[in-house]
C-alpha cells in the first residue's frame, strides 16, 4: 500500500501530538432544509405557513456566512393566526385527561429520539454551538424534560387539584438562545393543558423542526405553534385576545421594556432575564475542581453567559495561575467539530464580548486571553478580566459570554455583601470543603439557584429561576408547573388598559383635605398616626384625611401619608427583615396566633365597627371570626413549605427552599377592610416577609386598631401601616427600588400603573386589574395562591461524595 | 525512567492542605472523556504514540520462557511492518516503552530482548507484588536480585498500611494501582494524581512520572488517557520518561485499529500476530 499524502501527516502528528478536526456531517440538516426548499416559514396548526409578501432574512452558518435558507418574517396577522390555532386546540387539549396529555408528550419524546441526529446537527449548524454540548447535553435534557412532564401530567388531577391551565401561552425567545430554553417552558405548559405560541427570532430553524415533530404526531396539531419574527412583534402577541400568559426570556433591558409595554394588556408576564452567573471560591475549596467549575460556567457552550468570580484573597494567586493554565488548553472552533469546547454561540456574541473587554481595559482592568482558536472566524477567546475597580461601570454591568470577571474578597461576610451587591439574582455556585461556611453562603445568596461544589447542573425536577432583576418566573419542577396554572374558576384575563393613563402624573399630587366637621366615631377613638417602626407617628405632611361611615358621617381623621413616610416605612421594614426571616416558621406561627388571640379579644369592638360600615351584626361577627381563623391557619400552612428533591445522576439532595421575598408592599382593597387586610397580611408574615401596608381607603380604622396589638406583640418594623391617598401611596411604593414585591388591590388604572412602574426593579407584582375578589371564599381569600406568591423558591444543590 | 529527582524536604502540610472534592472530580472525569476525540490520521498517529508508552506486561503465575519470548518479540515489533509502511512510520523505530514481568522472569526477558536485538528496558514488579505485605528486608533483597538479573526499572508496591496511617513515601514515578485490584486505573483517581504531580512540579520543579495500570484494554481508552495527560499536565509529560501505560491486551486492539485505518476493513483474529 502506498502512503497517501494524508498519511505523511501522521508522521508529523506523531511528533507534535496535536488535536485534529473531528467534523460531524450535517448532511441531514441540509436535507431537512431542502424539504422546505430552503425557505423557512412558520409552523402553525400542524402545517407550514408560508405567507406571501413578507420580508425575508437569510439564515446563515455563523462560521462561514454560507446561506442555509431564507426565513420569512412574520407580521401581526401571522401571529393572530397562530394564536387562533392555539385557542382552538386549547378547547380540546385542556379538556383531555392528564393521562392523555402524558401519552402525547411521551410520543413526542420518542419522536425526538428518532430524529435526534437531525436535531443536534441542525441546532449546531445554525447557532454555531459546540455539537458535543448540543448532542450530549441539550438533546438528552430535552427528552428528559418531556418525560418528566409527561409524568407530571399523569398525576395532575390529584396532585394539582384546584388548579386549571391558564390558557394560551405566548412564549417570546431572544436571539442567541438554545432550543432548550423553549423546551423548559413548553413542556410544563403543555403538560398542564395550556397551548403555546412561540415567537422565536428569525433564522432559528430548530424550534420550527420541533414544532413540526409535534405537529406530525396527529390529533393535536395546534398545541405548539412557532412563529419566527422580530422581538418587536412581542406586544402584538401579548395583546392578542386569548393570550393569558406571556413567558419571556432574554436580556434584562428587553424584559424591562416588555414589562412596561404590556402594562394593562391583561396577560400575566413571566420574565427570566439575564445570563450572568456567579462563582464563589473560598480558601477551603478544591481549587482545581473550582477551576473546572469556572470552565463550565463561562468557557463552554453549556453556559448561557459570563461569570462573576469572587475568590478569597488567600488563594487568589493560586487560583489565577490555575485558571490561566487551564485557559490555554481550551479550544474554540467550528461548532460541528466534535473536539471543540466553545463554538460561536450565535452570530454577534463575540461583538458583545469584545465591547465589554474594550470598556474594561479603558477602566483599568487587566485582561488575559488564551486558548486555541481559528484565526479566520469571528471568535472571542476565553477571557479573564481582573482588577476592575469596584465602582467602574463594567463592574456593575452584566458580564457577557465567554468572559470571567474576577475580584477578591476577604471574609464570608464580605463575600456575601459583594455577591448580593448586584441587581441580578440568577444562579451561583459556592466552592468550599467546609460545610458550615458553604451553607452559610448558600443560604445567604440572593439568587434562584445555588450549587455547592458544582456549577450549571440542571434537572427537569429542580425548579430553575431567579430573583431581583433576573426575573421571577420559574421553570422545572413544581414551580415550573404553577407558572402555567391558575386557581380553578379564575376569570379569563382581559385587557384592562386605560389608554389615557398618564404614568408621569398618576397619583403624583394629593388633593388637600380640610376639616370636615366633628368626629362622631366610637370611643375610645382609634389611634391617630402612621404605624411605622412599631409606633404611631405623625405624617410628614402634617395633614389628615377624613374617614366617613356608610351613611356619610365623619368617623375620624387618619394621617395623610406621603413619599417620605413610605421611605421611612420601607427602611423600618428592612431593619426588621433579617430578624424576622431568621425566625423559625414555628415561632412566626406562634406570633400570628398571639395576634389572633388579641383580635379575638377585640371582637365586640371590631364587629360593631363593621356594623357601622353597613354589615349585619351576625355577618360582622362571622367576619371577625374568619379573620382570626385565617391568622391561625396561615402560620400552620407556612410550616410545611420547601422539600428535598432527589435527582437522577446526582448523589446527594437538592433542597427546594422557600425564602422570604424581603419587604413586601401590600395595597389592600377598599372592600372588606378587616378580612382582606388580615387575609393578605397573614401569609406575608407567615412566610417571613416584613410588610409595608396601605389599608382600605374607605375604612382604614380596622387596620389601625389591629396595629395597637401589633405594637405590643410584634418586633418594631415588622408591619408598617401607612394611611393616605391610595393612588399617591401606590405610586410611591411601585416606584420604590428597594421593595421586593408588591400586591395591589384597587382600580384598573392603579393596577396598570403598578405593572408599568414595577419595571424599575422588576419586582414581582400581583394586581387585581380592578376586579373585586371574594375574600370570604376559602379559595380566593386563603388559597394556596397566596402562599405561592408570598415566598420565593431557591434550589440548593448539595452533591455528596467521600 | 526519569532521572532521579533531587527530592525535597518532606513537608506533610502540603498533603494536609490538599482538598479533593469527589463529585466534582467525577464530573471532570466524565467530561474529559467526551470532550476530546481524535479521528483519521490523528487517531492513527496518536495510537502509534500510545504504543510507545506501553509497558507490555505479563504477570501470570504460569509465565514461562516461551511466552516471555513472544512478549519481547511483540515489544520490538508491536505493529505489523506493512501497516507501519502504509503510514510511512516504519523507520521510526516504534517499540513499546518496556516489558514488565515478575522478578523470576527478568532473566528470560533480558535474554529474549537481546535475541531480537532490542534495547528497551525490562521492568519488574518487585517488593512483594501485588500486596506489598512482606518484610522490608525481603523487599529490598527482591529488588537487589531483580536488578542483578538485568531489570532496569522496578515497580515498587508501597506499604499501604503506612500510607493509611499518614506515613507517606516519596517517589519519582507513581502508578495508579498494581493492576491486580478489583478497581484499577480509573479516571477520577488519575485526575487527583495528575494534579498532585503538577502541584509538585510547580513547587519544586521536579517532574514525577505517571503510570496507569490495569483495565486499559481498548484503543479508545488509550486515546482518552493520552488526552487526559495532555489536558491536565501538558505535552511535556507525553514521553516515555514520564508516562507509561501498564497493559497486556491493549496493544492488540491498537493494532486492530491501525489495521482498520490503513485498510478500511476490520481485522480478523488471525490477521494480526499474537503477543
From TrEMBL, chain A:
Pfam families (UniProt xref): Aldedh
InterPro entries: Ald_DH/histidinol_DH (IPR016161), Ald_DH_C (IPR016163), Ald_DH_N (IPR016162), Aldehyde_DH (IPR011408), Aldehyde_DH_dom (IPR015590)
GO molecular function annotations of the record: oxidoreductase activity, acting on the aldehyde or oxo group of donors, NAD or NADP as acceptor
SUPFAM superfamilies per the UniProt record, alphabetical: ALDH-like (SSF53720)
Domain Aldehyde dehydrogenase, first and last residues per copy: 49-486, 549-770
Signal peptide limits: none
Subunit (UniProt): Interacts with SPG21.
Family: Belongs to the aldehyde dehydrogenase family.
The protein, known as: Aldehyde dehydrogenase family 16 member A1
Gene: ALDH16A1
TrEMBL record, chain B:
Alphabetized InterPro entries for the sequence: Aldolase_TIM, DeoC, DeoC/FbaB/LacD_aldolase
GO biological process: carbohydrate catabolic process; deoxyribonucleotide catabolic process; deoxyribose phosphate catabolic process
Gene3D superfamilies, sorted: Aldolase class I
Catalytic activity as recorded in UniProt: 2-deoxy-D-ribose 5-phosphate = D-glyceraldehyde 3-phosphate + acetaldehyde
Residues annotated as catalytic: 175 (schiff-base intermediate with acetaldehyde), 211 (proton donor/acceptor)
Coiled-coil zones: none
Example of a GO cellular component annotation carried by this entry: cytoplasm
Keywords noted in UniProt: Lyase, Schiff base
Enzyme Commission number(s): 4.1.2.4
Involved pathway(s): Carbohydrate degradation; 2-deoxy-D-ribose 1-phosphate degradation; D-glyceraldehyde 3-phosphate and acetaldehyde from 2-deoxy-alpha-D-ribose 1-phosphate: step 2/2
GO MF assignments: deoxyribose-phosphate aldolase activity
Family (UniProt): Belongs to the DeoC/FbaB aldolase family. DeoC type 2 subfamily.
Full protein name: deoxyribose-phosphate aldolase
Amino acid at each position: 500500500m502506498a502512503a497517501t499524502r494524508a498519511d505523511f501527516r501522521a508522521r508529523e502528528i506523531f511528533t507534535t501530538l496535536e488535536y485534529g478536526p473531528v467534523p460531524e456531517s450535517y448532511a441531514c440538516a441540509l436535507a431537512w432544509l431542502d424539504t422546505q426548499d430552503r425557505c423557512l416559514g412558520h409552523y402553525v396548526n400542524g402545517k407550514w405557513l408560508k405567507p406571501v409578501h413578507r420580508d425575508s432574512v437569510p439564515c446563515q452558518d455563523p462560521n462561514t456566512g454560507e446561506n442555509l435558507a431564507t426565513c420569512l418574517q412574520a407580521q401581526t396577522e401571522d401571529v393572530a393566526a397562530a394564536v387562533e390555532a392555539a385557542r382552538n386546540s386549547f378547547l380540546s387539549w385542556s379538556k383531555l385527561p392528564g393521562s392523555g396529555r402524558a401519552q402525547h408528550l411521551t410520543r413526542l419524546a420518542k419522536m425526538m429520539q428518532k430524529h435526534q441526529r437531525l436535531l443536534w446537527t441542525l441546532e449546531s449548524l445554525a447557532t454555531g454551538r459546540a455539537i458535543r454540548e448540543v448532542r450530549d447535553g441539550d438533546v438528552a435534557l430535552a427528552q428528559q424534560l418531556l418525560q418528566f412532564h409527561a409524568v407530571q401530567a399523569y398525576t395532575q388531577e390529584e396532585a394539582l387539584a384546584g388548579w386549571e391551565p391558564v390558557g394560551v401561552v405566548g412564549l417570546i425567545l431572544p436571539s442567541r438562545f438554545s432550543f432548550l430554553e423553549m423546551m423548559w417552558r413548553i413542556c410544563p405548559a403543555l403538560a398542564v393543558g395550556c397551548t403555546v405560541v412561540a415567537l422565536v427570532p428569525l433564522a432559528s430553524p430548530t424550534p420550527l423542526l420541533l414544532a413540526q415533530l409535534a405537529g406530525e404526531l396527529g390529533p393535536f396539531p395546534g398545541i405548539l405553534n412557532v412563529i419566527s419574527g422580530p422581538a418587536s412583534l412581542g406586544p402584538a402577541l401579548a395583546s392578542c385576545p386569548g393570550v393569558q400568559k406571556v413567558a419571556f426570556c432574554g436580556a434584562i433591558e428587553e424584559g424591562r421594556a416588555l414589562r412596561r409595554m404590556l402594562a394593562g394588556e391583561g396577560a400575566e408576564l413571566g420574565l427570566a432575564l439575564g445570563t450572568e452567573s456567579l462563582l464563589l471560591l473560598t480558601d477551603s475549596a478544591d481549587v482545581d475542581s473550582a477551576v473546572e467549575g469556572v470552565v463550565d460556567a463561562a468557557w463552554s457552550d453549556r453556559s448561557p453567559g459570563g461569570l462573576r468570580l469572587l475568590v478569597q484573597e488567600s488563594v487568589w494567586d493560586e487560583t489565577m495561575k490555575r485558571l490561566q493554565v487551564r485557559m490555554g488548553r481550551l479550544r474554540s472552533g467550528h461548532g460541528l467539530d466534535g473536539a471543540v469546547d466553545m463554538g460561536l454561540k450565535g452570530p454577534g456574541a463575540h461583538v458583545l464580548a469584545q465591547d465589554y473587554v474594550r470598556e474594561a481595559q479603558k477602566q483599568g482592568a487587566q485582561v488575559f486571553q488564551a486558548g486555541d482558536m481559528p484565526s479566520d472566524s469571528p471568535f472571542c477567546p476565553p477571557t479573564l478580566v481582573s482588577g476592575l475597580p469596584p465602582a467602574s461601570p463594567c463592574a456593575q454591568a452584566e458580564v457577557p459570554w465567554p468572559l470571567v470577571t474576577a475580584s477578591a474578597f476577604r471574609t464570608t461576610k464580605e463575600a456575601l455583601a459583594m455577591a448580593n451587591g448586584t441587581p441580578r439574582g440568577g444562579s451561583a455556585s459556592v466552592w468550599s470543603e467546609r460545610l458550615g461556611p458553604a451553607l452559610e453562603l448558600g443560604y445567604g445568596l440572593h439568587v434562584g439557584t445555588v450549587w455547592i461544589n458544582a456549577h450549571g447542573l440542571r434537572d427537569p425536577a429542580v425548579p430553575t429561576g431567579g430573583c431581583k432583576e433576573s426575573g421571577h418566573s420559574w421553570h422545572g419542577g413544581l414551580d415550573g408547573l404553577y407558572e402555567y396554572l391558575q386557581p380553578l374558576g379564575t376569570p379569563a384575563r382581559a385587557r384592562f388598559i386605560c389608554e389615557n393613563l398618564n404614568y408621569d402624573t398618576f397619583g403624583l399630587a394629593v388633593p388637600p383635605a380640610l376639616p370636615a366637621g366633628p368626629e362622631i366615631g366610637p370611643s375610645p377613638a382609634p389611634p391617630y398616626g402612621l404605624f411605622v417602626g412599631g409606633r404611631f407617628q405623625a405624617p410628614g405632611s402634617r395633614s389628615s384625611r377624613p374617614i366617613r361611615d356608610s351613611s356619610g358621617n365623619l368617623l375620624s381623621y387618619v394621617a395623610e401619608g406621603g413619599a417620605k413616610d413610605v421611605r421611612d416605612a420601607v427602611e423600618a421594614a428592612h431593619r426588621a427583615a433579617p430578624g424576622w426571616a431568621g425566625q423559625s416558621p414555628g415561632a412566626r406561627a406562634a406570633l400570628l396566633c398571639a395576634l389572633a388571640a388579641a383580635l379575638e379579644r377585640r371582637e365586640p369592638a371590631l364587629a360593631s365597627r363593621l356594623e357601622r360600615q353597613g354589615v349585619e351584626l351576625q355577618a360582622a361577627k362571622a367576619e371577625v371570626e374568619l379573620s382570626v381563623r385565617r391568622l391561625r391557619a396561615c402560620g400552620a400552612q407556612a410550616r410545611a413549605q420547601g422539600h428535598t428533591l432527589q435527582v437522577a445522576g446526582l448523589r446527594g439532595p437538592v433542597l427546594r427552599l422557600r425564602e422570604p421575598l424581603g419587604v413586601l408592599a401590600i395595597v389592600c382593597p377598599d372592600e372588606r377592610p378587616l378580612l382582606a387586610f388580615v387575609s393578605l397580611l397573614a401569609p406575608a408574615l407567615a412566610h417571613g416577609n416584613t410588610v409595608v401596608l396601605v389599608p382600605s381607603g374607605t375604612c382604614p380604622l380596622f387596620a389601625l386598631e389591629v396595629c395597637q396589638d401589633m405594637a405590643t406583640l410584634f418586633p418594631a418594623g415588622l408591619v408598617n401601616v401607612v394611611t393616605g391617598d391610595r393612588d399617591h401611596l401606590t405610586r410611591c411604593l411601585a416606584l420604590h427600588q428597594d421593595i421586593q414585591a408588591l400586591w395591589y388591590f384597587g382600580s384598573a388604572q392603579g393596577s396598570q400603573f403598578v405593572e408599568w412602574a414595577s419595571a424599575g426593579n422588576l419586582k414581582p407584582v400581583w394586581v387585581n386589574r380592578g376586579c373585586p375578589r371574594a375574600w370570604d371564599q376559602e379559595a380566593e381569600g386563603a388559597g394556596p395562591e397566596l402562599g405561592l406568591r408570598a415566598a420565593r423558591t431557591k434550589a440548593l444543590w448539595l452533591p455528596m461524595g467521600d | 525512567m526519569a532521572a532521579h529527582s533531587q527530592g525535597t524536604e518532606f513537608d506533610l502540610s502540603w498533603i494536609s492542605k490538599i482538598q479533593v472534592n469527589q463529585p466534582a472530580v467525577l464530573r471532570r472525569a466524565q467530561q474529559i472523556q467526551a470532550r476530546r476525540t481524535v479521528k483519521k490520521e490523528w487517531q492513527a498517529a496518536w495510537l502509534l504514540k500510545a504504543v510507545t508508552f506501553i509497558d507490555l506486561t505479563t504477570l501470570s503465575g504460569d509465565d514461562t520462557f516461551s511466552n516471555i519470548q513472544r512478549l519481547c518479540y511483540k515489544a520490538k515489533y508491536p505493529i505489523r511492518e506493512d501497516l507501519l509502511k502504509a503510514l510511512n512510520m516504519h523507520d521510526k523505530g516504534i517499540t513499546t516503552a518496556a516489558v514488565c514481568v515478575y522478578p523470576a522472569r527478568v532473566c528470560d526477558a533480558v535474554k529474549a530482548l537481546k535475541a531480537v536485538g532490542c534495547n528497551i528496558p525490562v521492568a519488574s514488579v518487585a517488593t512483594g507484588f501485588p500486596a506489598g505485605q512482606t518484610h522490608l528486608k525481603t523487599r529490598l533483597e527482591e529488588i537487589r536480585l531483580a536488578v542483578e538479573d538485568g531489570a532496569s526499572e522496578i515497580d515498587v508496591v508501597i506499604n499501604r498500611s503506612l500510607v493509611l496511617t499518614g506515613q507517606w513515601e516519596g517517589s519519582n514515578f507513581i502508578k495508579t494501582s498494581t493492576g491486580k485490584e478489583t478497581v484499577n486505573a480509573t479516571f477520577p483517581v488519575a485526575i487527583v494524581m495528575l494534579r498532585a504531580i503538577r502541584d509538585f512540579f510547580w513547587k519544586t520543579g521536579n517532574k514525577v512520572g505517571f503510570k496507569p495500570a490495569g483495565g486499559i484494554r481498548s484503543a479508545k481508552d488509550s486515546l482518552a488517557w493520552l488526552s487526559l495527560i495532555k489536558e491536565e499536565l501538558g505535552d511535556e509529560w507525553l514521553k516515555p520518561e514520564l508516562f507509561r501505560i501498564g497493559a497486556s491486551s491493549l496493544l492488540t486492539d491498537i493494532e486492530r485499529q491501525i489495521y482498520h485505518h490503513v485498510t478500511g476493513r476490520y481485522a480478523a483474529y488471525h490477521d494480526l500476530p499474537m503477543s
